[in-house]
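Database export, one record per block. Field names are fixed; values are copied verbatim from the stored entry.
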Amino acid sequence: MFWEQMMSIGLSVFLAPLMLGVINRTKAFFSGRVGPPLCQTYFDLLKLSRKGAVFSRTTTWIFRSGPTVGLASFFLILLILPFGRIPALLHFQGDFILVAYLMGLARFFMVLSALDTGSSFEGMGASREVTFSTLAEPSFFLALLAMARLAGGLSLSEILVASPERGQLTVPPILLVTISLFVVLLAENARIPVDDPNTHLELTMIHEVMVLDHSGPDLAFILLGSAFKMWILSAILLGVLLPIKFQSAWAGILVFLGGMFALSVMIGIVESVMARLRLNRIPTLLIGAMACSLFALILVIRIKP
């Protein structure tokens, strides 16, 4: 089991950037373009790691610590996150609360890093990020709480791996949790319809505006941390959707990886067929996701009082 857990962590670290490549190729296919190579994210990470970093004289150690703390937080979550049907290397009761707090810690330091530049432009993006995160984080937490109540455990390895058999009564709350987590996945990763990771239009930028002053290895840390974040939220969503127990660990790994990249294609399709929402419409979307999580928790409590 230990070697399977170590292998799962290695696969997560290695394959996480590939999800961004699958999304970009899917968007290129729908727009009639060839698109960048699937491994373009790896090339970008290698290129940025070889460059030097430029720091403004107005910044302090807070600006330099943002990318490092963010990447370290997401890597620690990978140690707590189960890989398909393989339990996490580090798991304990209540570890899903730590996961939520680590994601909040990464965001907190990235916001501080943007504010430390003294730029009103990056401050605008940081304020938007914090505003929308106050609606996305409760949705995420309530969704995991509903699944924890359904699984009868407070660990992600129990919630996503050792989940009980699901009957007709559990379908509605699981469906509501799935909808909520998918909206959170798009919002937390700055994807359409909440944000556009490829835009540079000042009036609509949210996440990308916070990292404009980062360069070199720091920007590589941010890009890799974004890939880890995409992998983490996708794995949690897939764990809710695939409660199947496999006799062979390899079969479970293959199904899990296939599901992850199928989810990447789905995200690319959503970004290809939808337009970005206006900023004043995004809170409505996130409040709807929060309502889905809350209703799911209420239904689970009625099913398992």
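Remark 1: Residues 5 and 89 are 6 Å apart (CA to CA).
Remark 2: The chain has ten helices and no strands.
End of record.
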